Amino acid sequence: MKSRASSVLRSFLTNLFIVVLGLGMLYPIVWLIAASFKESNAIFGDPSLIPKAFTLQNYAQGWKGIGIVGFGTFFKNSILICMLCVVANVIVCSLTAYAFGRLRFVGKGFWFAVMMLTLMLPTHVTTIPRYVIFRSFGWLDSFLPIVVPKFFATDAFFVFLLVQFIRGLPKELDESAVIDGCGKFRIYTRIILPLTMPALITTVLFTFLWTWDDFFNQLLYLNSPAKYTVPMGLRLFIDSSGISSWGPMFAMSVLSLVPSLILFFSLQKYFVEGIATTGIKG
Amino acid sequence: MKRGRQKAIHDNLSSYLFLAPWLVGFFVLTFYPMIYSLYLSFTQFNLLEPPRWIGLRNFFVMFVGNDQYPRDDRFINSLFVTLRFVFISVPIKLAFALVIALLMNQKLRLIPLYRTLYYIPTLLGGSVAIAVLWRRLFSGDGVVNAILHALFNVNPPAWISTPQYALSTLIILAVWQFGSPMIIFLAGLKQIPQEYYDASSVDGAGKIRQFFAVTMPCLSPIIFFNVVMQMISAFQSFTQAFIISGGQGGPLDSTMFYSLYLYMKGFGFSEMGYASAMAWVLLIIIAGLTALTFRVSGSLIHYGSGE
Questions:
Q1: In CATH terms, is domain A62-278 a member of 1.10.10.60?
Q2: Full-model pTM
Q3: CA of B269 vs chain A CAs: smallest distance (Å)
Q4: Contact residues, B window 101-130, toward A, CB-based 8 Å cutoff
Q5: CA distances from A181 to A66, A174, A176, B114, B185 (A)
Q6: B305 lies in a domain?
Protein backbone atom coordinates (compact mmCIF):
# COMPACT_ATOMS: atom_id res chain seq x y z
CA MET A 1 0.00 0.00 0.00
CA LYS A 2 2.79 2.30 0.94
CA SER A 3 4.58 1.67 -2.36
CA ARG A 4 1.35 2.46 -4.22
CA ALA A 5 1.12 5.86 -2.54
CA SER A 6 4.73 6.59 -3.27
CA SER A 7 4.33 5.64 -6.92
CA VAL A 8 1.32 7.95 -7.22
CA LEU A 9 3.37 10.72 -5.67
CA ARG A 10 6.25 9.98 -8.01
CA SER A 11 4.09 10.08 -11.09
CA PHE A 12 2.53 13.32 -9.87
CA LEU A 13 5.95 14.88 -9.41
CA THR A 14 7.11 13.70 -12.83
CA ASN A 15 4.02 15.18 -14.44
CA LEU A 16 4.46 18.42 -12.55
CA PHE A 17 8.10 18.67 -13.57
CA ILE A 18 7.31 18.03 -17.24
CA VAL A 19 4.50 20.58 -17.26
CA VAL A 20 6.49 23.31 -15.50
CA LEU A 21 9.51 22.80 -17.74
CA GLY A 22 7.30 22.72 -20.82
CA LEU A 23 5.56 25.95 -19.89
CA GLY A 24 8.93 27.54 -19.25
CA MET A 25 9.98 26.55 -22.73
CA LEU A 26 6.88 28.03 -24.24
CA TYR A 27 7.27 31.28 -22.35
CA PRO A 28 9.10 33.12 -25.18
CA ILE A 29 6.34 32.29 -27.65
CA VAL A 30 3.57 33.28 -25.27
CA TRP A 31 5.47 36.47 -24.50
CA LEU A 32 5.70 37.21 -28.23
CA ILE A 33 1.95 36.84 -28.61
CA ALA A 34 1.31 39.05 -25.59
CA ALA A 35 3.81 41.65 -26.79
CA SER A 36 2.06 41.91 -30.13
CA PHE A 37 -0.95 43.33 -28.28
CA LYS A 38 1.06 45.75 -26.17
CA GLU A 39 1.72 49.35 -27.03
CA SER A 40 5.11 49.70 -28.70
CA ASN A 41 6.76 51.66 -25.90
CA ALA A 42 5.61 49.07 -23.34
CA ILE A 43 7.20 46.09 -25.10
CA PHE A 44 10.87 46.35 -24.25
CA GLY A 45 11.76 44.96 -20.88
CA ASP A 46 8.32 43.96 -19.77
CA PRO A 47 8.30 40.24 -18.92
CA SER A 48 4.59 40.12 -18.13
CA LEU A 49 2.26 38.09 -20.28
CA ILE A 50 -0.78 40.32 -19.91
CA PRO A 51 -0.78 43.63 -21.79
CA LYS A 52 -1.54 46.56 -19.51
CA ALA A 53 -3.29 48.34 -22.34
CA PHE A 54 -4.63 46.00 -24.99
CA THR A 55 -4.24 47.32 -28.53
CA LEU A 56 -4.73 46.06 -32.06
CA GLN A 57 -2.80 48.99 -33.45
CA ASN A 58 0.30 46.85 -34.11
CA TYR A 59 -1.64 44.50 -36.35
CA ALA A 60 -3.24 47.33 -38.31
CA GLN A 61 0.07 49.09 -38.77
CA GLY A 62 2.05 45.94 -39.51
CA TRP A 63 -0.40 44.71 -42.12
CA LYS A 64 0.23 47.87 -44.09
CA GLY A 65 3.84 46.80 -44.32
CA ILE A 66 6.68 49.12 -45.17
CA GLY A 67 6.64 51.36 -48.17
CA ILE A 68 4.09 50.53 -50.83
CA VAL A 69 3.90 46.76 -50.37
CA GLY A 70 1.61 45.46 -47.65
CA PHE A 71 1.88 42.25 -45.69
CA GLY A 72 -1.06 40.85 -47.62
CA THR A 73 1.21 40.61 -50.66
CA PHE A 74 3.91 38.81 -48.66
CA PHE A 75 1.39 36.28 -47.42
CA LYS A 76 0.00 35.79 -50.92
CA ASN A 77 3.51 35.18 -52.29
CA SER A 78 4.46 32.79 -49.50
CA ILE A 79 1.27 30.80 -49.87
CA LEU A 80 1.63 30.58 -53.66
CA ILE A 81 5.22 29.34 -53.40
CA CYS A 82 4.30 26.82 -50.71
CA MET A 83 1.34 25.44 -52.69
CA LEU A 84 3.44 24.93 -55.81
CA CYS A 85 6.20 23.23 -53.83
CA VAL A 86 3.71 20.98 -52.07
CA VAL A 87 2.10 19.89 -55.35
CA ALA A 88 5.51 19.27 -56.91
CA ASN A 89 6.86 17.24 -54.01
CA VAL A 90 3.75 15.11 -53.64
CA ILE A 91 3.66 14.14 -57.32
CA VAL A 92 7.33 13.86 -58.20
CA CYS A 93 8.70 12.44 -54.96
CA SER A 94 6.01 9.77 -54.93
CA LEU A 95 6.76 8.83 -58.56
CA THR A 96 10.44 8.48 -57.71
CA ALA A 97 9.68 6.61 -54.50
CA TYR A 98 7.43 4.20 -56.41
CA ALA A 99 10.30 3.43 -58.79
CA PHE A 100 12.76 2.85 -55.93
CA GLY A 101 10.32 1.06 -53.66
CA ARG A 102 8.55 -1.25 -56.10
CA LEU A 103 9.84 -1.38 -59.63
CA ARG A 104 12.75 -3.48 -60.82
CA PHE A 105 15.31 -2.05 -63.18
CA VAL A 106 19.00 -2.19 -63.97
CA GLY A 107 21.10 0.06 -61.74
CA LYS A 108 18.48 0.49 -59.04
CA GLY A 109 20.84 -0.13 -56.14
CA PHE A 110 23.33 2.34 -57.53
CA TRP A 111 20.81 5.12 -58.06
CA PHE A 112 19.30 4.55 -54.66
CA ALA A 113 22.71 4.93 -53.04
CA VAL A 114 23.24 8.12 -55.04
CA MET A 115 19.89 9.43 -53.85
CA MET A 116 20.79 8.69 -50.23
CA LEU A 117 24.11 10.48 -50.64
CA THR A 118 22.40 13.63 -51.91
CA LEU A 119 20.46 13.57 -48.65
CA MET A 120 23.69 14.22 -46.75
CA LEU A 121 25.05 16.78 -49.21
CA PRO A 122 25.39 20.29 -47.76
CA THR A 123 23.29 22.61 -49.91
CA HIS A 124 26.15 25.08 -50.23
CA VAL A 125 27.93 22.97 -52.81
CA THR A 126 25.15 23.53 -55.32
CA THR A 127 24.09 27.02 -54.24
CA ILE A 128 26.44 29.09 -56.38
CA PRO A 129 26.26 27.05 -59.62
CA ARG A 130 22.48 26.95 -59.34
CA TYR A 131 22.47 30.70 -58.93
CA VAL A 132 24.62 31.05 -62.04
CA ILE A 133 22.36 28.67 -63.99
CA PHE A 134 19.12 30.36 -62.94
CA ARG A 135 20.63 33.74 -63.66
CA SER A 136 21.43 32.67 -67.21
CA PHE A 137 17.79 31.56 -67.57
CA GLY A 138 16.72 35.05 -66.54
CA TRP A 139 14.97 33.62 -63.49
CA LEU A 140 16.34 35.98 -60.85
CA ASP A 141 13.74 37.89 -58.87
CA SER A 142 11.07 35.31 -59.62
CA PHE A 143 9.62 32.29 -57.81
CA LEU A 144 11.00 29.90 -60.42
CA PRO A 145 14.39 29.14 -58.76
CA ILE A 146 12.54 28.21 -55.57
CA VAL A 147 9.72 26.21 -57.13
CA VAL A 148 11.09 24.53 -60.26
CA PRO A 149 13.74 22.35 -58.52
CA LYS A 150 10.96 20.70 -56.52
CA PHE A 151 9.49 19.40 -59.77
CA PHE A 152 12.66 17.33 -60.15
CA ALA A 153 12.48 15.62 -56.76
CA THR A 154 15.45 17.51 -55.36
CA ASP A 155 14.05 17.02 -51.85
CA ALA A 156 15.58 13.57 -51.47
CA PHE A 157 14.35 13.47 -47.93
CA PHE A 158 10.75 12.97 -49.02
CA VAL A 159 11.74 10.35 -51.57
CA PHE A 160 13.38 8.44 -48.73
CA LEU A 161 10.33 8.86 -46.49
CA LEU A 162 7.99 7.58 -49.19
CA VAL A 163 10.28 4.70 -50.20
CA GLN A 164 10.33 3.53 -46.59
CA PHE A 165 6.56 3.65 -46.51
CA ILE A 166 5.98 1.98 -49.88
CA ARG A 167 8.33 -0.88 -48.98
CA GLY A 168 6.10 -1.58 -46.01
CA LEU A 169 2.98 -2.03 -48.13
CA PRO A 170 1.88 -5.60 -48.90
CA LYS A 171 3.22 -6.73 -52.28
CA GLU A 172 0.27 -9.03 -52.97
CA LEU A 173 -1.88 -6.05 -53.91
CA ASP A 174 0.17 -4.95 -56.88
CA GLU A 175 0.95 -8.54 -57.82
CA SER A 176 -2.73 -9.29 -58.18
CA ALA A 177 -3.16 -6.02 -60.06
CA VAL A 178 -0.50 -7.16 -62.53
CA ILE A 179 -2.43 -10.39 -63.05
CA ASP A 180 -5.54 -8.31 -63.69
CA GLY A 181 -3.55 -6.57 -66.43
CA CYS A 182 -2.79 -3.26 -64.72
CA GLY A 183 0.21 -1.32 -66.03
CA LYS A 184 2.75 0.34 -63.79
CA PHE A 185 1.12 3.72 -63.98
CA ARG A 186 -2.28 2.33 -63.04
CA ILE A 187 -0.77 0.49 -60.11
CA TYR A 188 0.84 3.74 -59.02
CA THR A 189 -2.36 5.79 -59.22
CA ARG A 190 -4.85 3.15 -58.10
CA ILE A 191 -2.95 1.22 -55.45
CA ILE A 192 0.24 2.91 -54.31
CA LEU A 193 -0.97 6.49 -54.04
CA PRO A 194 -4.10 5.78 -52.00
CA LEU A 195 -2.25 3.46 -49.62
CA THR A 196 0.62 5.91 -49.17
CA MET A 197 -1.75 8.65 -48.03
CA PRO A 198 -0.35 8.99 -44.48
CA ALA A 199 3.20 9.46 -45.75
CA LEU A 200 1.94 11.83 -48.44
CA ILE A 201 0.27 13.96 -45.78
CA THR A 202 3.56 14.04 -43.87
CA THR A 203 5.20 15.17 -47.12
CA VAL A 204 2.63 17.93 -47.57
CA LEU A 205 3.14 19.12 -44.01
CA PHE A 206 6.89 19.29 -43.99
CA THR A 207 7.16 20.68 -47.50
CA PHE A 208 4.83 23.46 -46.50
CA LEU A 209 6.63 24.19 -43.23
CA TRP A 210 10.14 24.11 -44.63
CA THR A 211 9.22 26.21 -47.64
CA TRP A 212 7.36 28.66 -45.44
CA ASP A 213 10.43 29.07 -43.21
CA ASP A 214 13.07 28.80 -45.91
CA PHE A 215 14.79 32.13 -45.67
CA PHE A 216 18.05 31.42 -47.49
CA ASN A 217 16.67 30.79 -50.99
CA GLN A 218 14.19 33.62 -50.73
CA LEU A 219 16.96 35.97 -49.67
CA LEU A 220 19.01 34.79 -52.62
CA TYR A 221 16.44 34.97 -55.36
CA LEU A 222 13.82 37.57 -54.46
CA ASN A 223 14.92 41.18 -54.85
CA SER A 224 11.87 43.37 -55.33
CA PRO A 225 9.47 43.91 -52.42
CA ALA A 226 6.47 43.02 -54.59
CA LYS A 227 7.89 39.46 -54.80
CA TYR A 228 8.84 39.24 -51.12
CA THR A 229 7.58 36.44 -48.93
CA VAL A 230 6.63 36.60 -45.26
CA PRO A 231 10.15 36.00 -43.85
CA MET A 232 11.54 38.62 -46.22
CA GLY A 233 8.80 41.03 -45.17
CA LEU A 234 9.72 40.52 -41.53
CA ARG A 235 13.30 41.30 -42.38
CA LEU A 236 12.21 44.63 -43.84
CA PHE A 237 11.00 45.58 -40.38
CA ILE A 238 14.39 44.82 -38.84
CA ASP A 239 16.17 47.00 -41.33
CA SER A 240 13.94 49.92 -40.51
CA SER A 241 14.39 49.29 -36.81
CA GLY A 242 13.17 52.07 -34.64
CA ILE A 243 11.32 51.67 -31.38
CA SER A 244 8.02 52.18 -33.13
CA SER A 245 8.45 49.23 -35.48
CA TRP A 246 8.86 46.53 -32.80
CA GLY A 247 5.13 46.35 -32.16
CA PRO A 248 4.11 45.89 -35.81
CA MET A 249 7.00 43.51 -36.34
CA PHE A 250 5.88 41.32 -33.44
CA ALA A 251 2.30 41.40 -34.68
CA MET A 252 3.38 40.20 -38.12
CA SER A 253 5.72 37.65 -36.54
CA VAL A 254 2.75 36.16 -34.71
CA LEU A 255 0.73 36.07 -37.93
CA SER A 256 3.64 34.38 -39.71
CA LEU A 257 3.56 31.54 -37.18
CA VAL A 258 -0.18 30.93 -37.45
CA PRO A 259 -0.17 28.70 -40.58
CA SER A 260 2.47 26.39 -39.06
CA LEU A 261 0.57 26.14 -35.80
CA ILE A 262 -2.75 25.40 -37.51
CA LEU A 263 -1.18 22.65 -39.61
CA PHE A 264 0.62 21.21 -36.62
CA PHE A 265 -2.40 21.03 -34.38
CA SER A 266 -4.76 19.71 -37.03
CA LEU A 267 -2.40 16.99 -38.29
CA GLN A 268 -0.31 16.12 -35.24
CA LYS A 269 -0.48 12.39 -35.78
CA TYR A 270 1.33 12.65 -39.09
CA PHE A 271 4.00 14.83 -37.58
CA VAL A 272 4.98 12.35 -34.94
CA GLU A 273 4.88 9.46 -37.41
CA GLY A 274 6.92 11.35 -39.94
CA ILE A 275 9.61 12.24 -37.43
CA ALA A 276 9.73 8.91 -35.67
CA THR A 277 9.90 6.76 -38.79
CA THR A 278 12.59 8.65 -40.63
CA GLY A 279 14.22 10.91 -38.10
CA ILE A 280 13.76 14.37 -39.45
CA LYS A 281 16.59 16.79 -39.24
CA GLY A 282 16.21 20.20 -37.70
CA MET B 1 13.87 -15.94 -75.99
CA LYS B 2 13.94 -12.80 -78.08
CA ARG B 3 10.53 -11.77 -76.83
CA GLY B 4 11.66 -12.24 -73.25
CA ARG B 5 14.57 -9.95 -73.83
CA GLN B 6 12.42 -7.34 -75.50
CA LYS B 7 10.06 -7.46 -72.58
CA ALA B 8 12.94 -6.94 -70.16
CA ILE B 9 14.12 -3.89 -72.09
CA HIS B 10 10.61 -2.55 -72.21
CA ASP B 11 10.26 -3.17 -68.48
CA ASN B 12 13.46 -1.29 -67.74
CA LEU B 13 12.51 1.62 -69.94
CA SER B 14 9.10 2.06 -68.39
CA SER B 15 10.64 1.90 -64.91
CA TYR B 16 13.13 4.56 -65.83
CA LEU B 17 10.24 6.71 -66.99
CA PHE B 18 9.12 6.94 -63.37
CA LEU B 19 12.62 7.79 -62.31
CA ALA B 20 13.09 10.35 -65.09
CA PRO B 21 12.23 13.58 -63.20
CA TRP B 22 14.57 12.68 -60.38
CA LEU B 23 17.33 11.63 -62.77
CA VAL B 24 17.08 14.87 -64.75
CA GLY B 25 17.04 16.82 -61.49
CA PHE B 26 20.04 14.93 -60.19
CA PHE B 27 22.15 15.60 -63.25
CA VAL B 28 21.07 19.20 -63.91
CA LEU B 29 20.56 20.49 -60.37
CA THR B 30 22.98 18.42 -58.29
CA PHE B 31 25.68 16.58 -60.22
CA TYR B 32 26.53 19.24 -62.79
CA PRO B 33 26.43 22.05 -60.17
CA MET B 34 28.78 20.02 -57.96
CA ILE B 35 31.32 19.61 -60.76
CA TYR B 36 30.86 23.24 -61.76
CA SER B 37 31.42 24.49 -58.23
CA LEU B 38 34.50 22.29 -57.92
CA TYR B 39 35.80 23.99 -61.07
CA LEU B 40 34.83 27.44 -59.76
CA SER B 41 36.74 26.79 -56.55
CA PHE B 42 39.96 27.01 -58.57
CA THR B 43 38.98 30.28 -60.17
CA GLN B 44 38.33 33.90 -59.53
CA PHE B 45 34.77 34.64 -60.59
CA ASN B 46 32.62 37.70 -60.04
CA LEU B 47 29.67 36.66 -62.21
CA LEU B 48 30.25 39.47 -64.72
CA GLU B 49 33.47 38.29 -66.31
CA PRO B 50 34.19 34.66 -67.18
CA PRO B 51 35.91 32.64 -64.42
CA ARG B 52 39.68 33.01 -64.35
CA TRP B 53 41.78 29.98 -63.37
CA ILE B 54 43.96 30.72 -60.34
CA GLY B 55 44.83 27.20 -59.26
CA LEU B 56 44.85 26.58 -55.53
CA ARG B 57 44.99 30.22 -54.53
CA ASN B 58 41.53 30.29 -52.92
CA PHE B 59 42.49 27.41 -50.65
CA PHE B 60 45.91 28.92 -50.05
CA VAL B 61 44.34 32.16 -48.87
CA MET B 62 42.00 30.26 -46.56
CA PHE B 63 44.59 28.22 -44.71
CA VAL B 64 48.09 29.52 -45.37
CA GLY B 65 48.56 32.96 -46.90
CA ASN B 66 51.69 34.98 -47.62
CA ASP B 67 52.64 38.61 -48.14
CA GLN B 68 51.11 38.82 -51.57
CA TYR B 69 47.94 36.94 -50.68
CA PRO B 70 47.42 37.42 -46.95
CA ARG B 71 45.59 34.75 -45.07
CA ASP B 72 41.85 35.28 -44.69
CA ASP B 73 41.56 35.34 -40.92
CA ARG B 74 37.83 35.92 -41.12
CA PHE B 75 37.53 32.52 -42.78
CA ILE B 76 39.44 30.72 -40.01
CA ASN B 77 37.37 32.60 -37.48
CA SER B 78 34.10 31.59 -39.14
CA LEU B 79 35.26 27.98 -39.16
CA PHE B 80 36.01 28.08 -35.44
CA VAL B 81 32.79 29.90 -34.59
CA THR B 82 30.87 27.20 -36.43
CA LEU B 83 32.84 24.35 -34.85
CA ARG B 84 32.22 25.82 -31.41
CA PHE B 85 28.54 26.17 -32.19
CA VAL B 86 28.28 22.58 -33.46
CA PHE B 87 30.27 20.94 -30.68
CA ILE B 88 28.51 22.80 -27.90
CA SER B 89 24.94 22.92 -29.17
CA VAL B 90 24.62 19.37 -30.54
CA PRO B 91 25.68 17.46 -27.38
CA ILE B 92 23.60 19.69 -25.08
CA LYS B 93 20.61 19.45 -27.37
CA LEU B 94 20.83 15.65 -27.57
CA ALA B 95 21.40 15.25 -23.83
CA PHE B 96 18.35 17.39 -23.20
CA ALA B 97 16.30 15.45 -25.73
CA LEU B 98 17.33 12.16 -24.14
CA VAL B 99 16.58 13.26 -20.59
CA ILE B 100 13.12 14.51 -21.54
CA ALA B 101 12.45 11.38 -23.58
CA LEU B 102 13.41 9.23 -20.56
CA LEU B 103 11.09 11.26 -18.36
CA MET B 104 8.26 10.78 -20.81
CA ASN B 105 8.93 7.09 -21.30
CA GLN B 106 6.94 6.24 -18.20
CA LYS B 107 3.35 5.24 -18.08
CA LEU B 108 2.00 8.75 -18.20
CA ARG B 109 -1.42 9.33 -19.65
CA LEU B 110 -0.70 12.78 -21.01
CA ILE B 111 2.26 11.87 -23.19
CA PRO B 112 0.65 12.94 -26.50
CA LEU B 113 -0.03 16.34 -24.96
CA TYR B 114 3.51 16.70 -23.60
CA ARG B 115 5.03 15.61 -26.88
CA THR B 116 3.04 18.33 -28.62
CA LEU B 117 4.03 20.94 -26.05
CA TYR B 118 7.72 20.14 -26.36
CA TYR B 119 7.68 20.04 -30.12
CA ILE B 120 6.33 23.57 -30.57
CA PRO B 121 9.74 25.30 -30.21
CA THR B 122 11.14 22.99 -32.90
CA LEU B 123 8.16 23.67 -35.12
CA LEU B 124 8.61 27.43 -34.94
CA GLY B 125 12.26 27.89 -34.00
CA GLY B 126 13.68 27.97 -37.51
CA SER B 127 11.56 30.91 -38.58
CA VAL B 128 12.61 34.49 -39.01
CA ALA B 129 9.88 35.44 -36.55
CA ILE B 130 11.53 33.57 -33.68
CA ALA B 131 14.97 34.89 -34.61
CA VAL B 132 13.54 38.41 -34.43
CA LEU B 133 12.03 37.58 -31.06
CA TRP B 134 15.37 36.22 -29.80
CA ARG B 135 17.12 39.38 -30.83
CA ARG B 136 14.65 41.31 -28.71
CA LEU B 137 14.62 38.94 -25.71
CA PHE B 138 18.40 38.90 -25.28
CA SER B 139 19.11 42.55 -25.96
CA GLY B 140 20.41 44.84 -23.22
CA ASP B 141 17.00 46.12 -22.23
CA GLY B 142 15.27 42.86 -23.12
CA VAL B 143 13.09 40.54 -21.11
CA VAL B 144 15.84 38.06 -20.17
CA ASN B 145 17.75 40.82 -18.43
CA ALA B 146 14.62 42.20 -16.81
CA ILE B 147 13.94 38.75 -15.33
CA LEU B 148 17.56 38.23 -14.25
CA HIS B 149 17.57 41.64 -12.64
CA ALA B 150 14.30 41.01 -10.81
CA LEU B 151 15.43 37.60 -9.55
CA PHE B 152 19.08 38.17 -8.67
CA ASN B 153 19.42 41.93 -8.66
CA VAL B 154 22.28 41.79 -11.15
CA ASN B 155 23.00 43.94 -14.17
CA PRO B 156 23.67 41.44 -16.96
CA PRO B 157 25.28 42.48 -20.24
CA ALA B 158 23.55 43.05 -23.53
CA TRP B 159 23.87 39.44 -24.70
CA ILE B 160 23.32 40.01 -28.41
CA SER B 161 25.77 42.87 -28.74
CA THR B 162 28.58 41.54 -26.54
CA PRO B 163 31.13 39.45 -28.49
CA GLN B 164 31.72 36.93 -25.68
CA TYR B 165 28.04 36.14 -25.27
CA ALA B 166 26.43 36.58 -28.69
CA LEU B 167 27.15 33.01 -29.78
CA SER B 168 25.64 31.59 -26.60
CA THR B 169 22.26 33.11 -27.45
CA LEU B 170 22.37 31.18 -30.73
CA ILE B 171 23.33 28.02 -28.88
CA ILE B 172 20.40 28.46 -26.51
CA LEU B 173 18.13 28.94 -29.49
CA ALA B 174 19.44 25.74 -31.09
CA VAL B 175 19.15 23.70 -27.88
CA TRP B 176 15.63 25.02 -27.37
CA GLN B 177 14.62 23.16 -30.54
CA PHE B 178 15.27 19.66 -29.24
CA GLY B 179 11.86 18.31 -30.27
CA SER B 180 12.86 16.11 -33.22
CA PRO B 181 15.60 14.11 -31.50
CA MET B 182 13.34 13.84 -28.46
CA ILE B 183 10.56 12.23 -30.50
CA ILE B 184 13.06 9.90 -32.17
CA PHE B 185 14.51 8.89 -28.77
CA LEU B 186 11.05 8.34 -27.38
CA ALA B 187 10.17 6.06 -30.30
CA GLY B 188 13.46 4.22 -29.74
CA LEU B 189 12.86 3.77 -26.02
CA LYS B 190 9.48 2.22 -26.72
CA GLN B 191 11.23 -0.45 -28.81
CA ILE B 192 13.38 -1.72 -25.94
CA PRO B 193 11.80 -4.95 -24.69
CA GLN B 194 10.57 -4.75 -21.12
CA GLU B 195 12.12 -8.19 -20.46
CA TYR B 196 15.59 -6.66 -20.59
CA TYR B 197 14.70 -4.42 -17.68
CA ASP B 198 12.94 -7.21 -15.80
CA ALA B 199 15.91 -9.52 -16.24
CA SER B 200 18.38 -6.90 -15.08
CA SER B 201 16.36 -6.06 -11.98
CA VAL B 202 16.25 -9.73 -11.11
CA ASP B 203 20.03 -9.58 -11.31
CA GLY B 204 19.88 -6.72 -8.84
CA ALA B 205 20.67 -3.80 -11.14
CA GLY B 206 19.53 -0.40 -9.97
CA LYS B 207 18.03 2.32 -12.15
CA ILE B 208 21.35 3.93 -12.95
CA ARG B 209 23.00 0.61 -13.69
CA GLN B 210 20.05 -0.24 -15.96
CA PHE B 211 20.45 3.00 -17.83
CA PHE B 212 24.04 2.20 -18.72
CA ALA B 213 23.65 -1.55 -19.15
CA VAL B 214 20.33 -1.70 -20.99
CA THR B 215 19.03 1.66 -22.19
CA MET B 216 22.21 3.14 -23.63
CA PRO B 217 23.35 0.06 -25.59
CA CYS B 218 19.87 -0.49 -27.03
CA LEU B 219 19.55 3.16 -27.95
CA SER B 220 23.05 3.54 -29.38
CA PRO B 221 22.12 3.28 -33.09
CA ILE B 222 19.52 5.99 -32.58
CA ILE B 223 21.93 8.21 -30.66
CA PHE B 224 24.42 7.79 -33.47
CA PHE B 225 21.80 8.64 -36.08
CA ASN B 226 20.80 11.78 -34.17
CA VAL B 227 24.41 12.89 -33.74
CA VAL B 228 25.07 12.64 -37.47
CA MET B 229 21.87 14.36 -38.55
CA GLN B 230 22.11 17.15 -35.99
CA MET B 231 25.76 17.74 -36.78
CA ILE B 232 25.12 18.05 -40.51
CA SER B 233 22.30 20.50 -40.04
CA ALA B 234 24.12 22.52 -37.35
CA PHE B 235 27.05 23.06 -39.70
CA GLN B 236 24.70 24.66 -42.19
CA SER B 237 22.89 27.01 -39.77
CA PHE B 238 22.22 30.31 -41.43
CA THR B 239 18.90 32.05 -40.83
CA GLN B 240 19.17 32.55 -37.07
CA ALA B 241 22.67 33.99 -37.14
CA PHE B 242 21.79 36.14 -40.13
CA ILE B 243 18.73 37.69 -38.50
CA ILE B 244 20.11 38.02 -34.99
CA SER B 245 23.30 39.69 -36.17
CA GLY B 246 21.51 41.81 -38.75
CA GLY B 247 23.24 39.96 -41.60
CA GLN B 248 26.72 40.93 -40.37
CA GLY B 249 27.77 37.99 -38.19
CA GLY B 250 28.68 40.48 -35.50
CA PRO B 251 29.54 41.76 -33.00
CA LEU B 252 33.19 41.41 -34.06
CA ASP B 253 32.41 38.36 -36.19
CA SER B 254 31.48 36.42 -33.06
CA THR B 255 28.40 34.92 -34.76
CA MET B 256 29.93 34.70 -38.22
CA PHE B 257 28.78 31.20 -39.11
CA TYR B 258 30.47 29.44 -41.96
CA SER B 259 27.42 29.62 -44.21
CA LEU B 260 26.95 33.28 -43.34
CA TYR B 261 30.49 34.08 -44.40
CA LEU B 262 30.06 31.99 -47.53
CA TYR B 263 26.94 33.94 -48.41
CA MET B 264 28.71 37.21 -47.69
CA LYS B 265 31.71 36.30 -49.85
CA GLY B 266 29.66 34.95 -52.72
CA PHE B 267 26.78 37.34 -52.86
CA GLY B 268 28.00 40.36 -50.92
CA PHE B 269 31.53 40.66 -52.34
CA SER B 270 30.82 38.72 -55.57
CA GLU B 271 33.74 36.38 -54.91
CA MET B 272 31.94 33.34 -56.26
CA GLY B 273 35.11 31.33 -56.84
CA TYR B 274 36.16 31.76 -53.22
CA ALA B 275 32.66 30.94 -51.98
CA SER B 276 32.66 27.75 -54.07
CA ALA B 277 35.98 26.77 -52.55
CA MET B 278 34.47 27.35 -49.11
CA ALA B 279 31.53 25.14 -50.03
CA TRP B 280 33.89 22.31 -50.96
CA VAL B 281 35.89 22.69 -47.77
CA LEU B 282 32.62 22.46 -45.84
CA LEU B 283 31.63 19.34 -47.77
CA ILE B 284 34.97 17.73 -46.92
CA ILE B 285 34.73 18.71 -43.23
CA ILE B 286 31.20 17.32 -42.93
CA ALA B 287 32.10 14.13 -44.80
CA GLY B 288 35.20 13.72 -42.63
CA LEU B 289 33.36 14.22 -39.37
CA THR B 290 30.58 11.88 -40.44
CA ALA B 291 33.12 9.21 -41.35
CA LEU B 292 34.86 9.77 -38.02
CA THR B 293 31.57 9.41 -36.18
CA PHE B 294 30.93 6.16 -38.04
CA ARG B 295 34.41 4.94 -37.09
CA VAL B 296 34.28 5.88 -33.44
CA SER B 297 30.77 4.58 -32.96
CA GLY B 298 31.47 1.34 -34.82
CA SER B 299 32.79 -0.21 -31.64
CA LEU B 300 30.24 1.46 -29.38
CA ILE B 301 27.05 0.74 -31.25
CA HIS B 302 25.10 -2.27 -30.29
CA TYR B 303 22.82 -3.50 -33.04
CA GLY B 304 20.09 -5.77 -31.75
CA SER B 305 19.67 -9.25 -33.17
CA GLY B 306 17.21 -7.62 -35.55
CA GLU B 307 13.63 -8.42 -36.35
A1: no
A2: 0.90
A3: 13
A4: 103-104, 106-108, 110, 112, 114-124, 126-130
A5: 60, 10, 9, 49, 45
A6: no
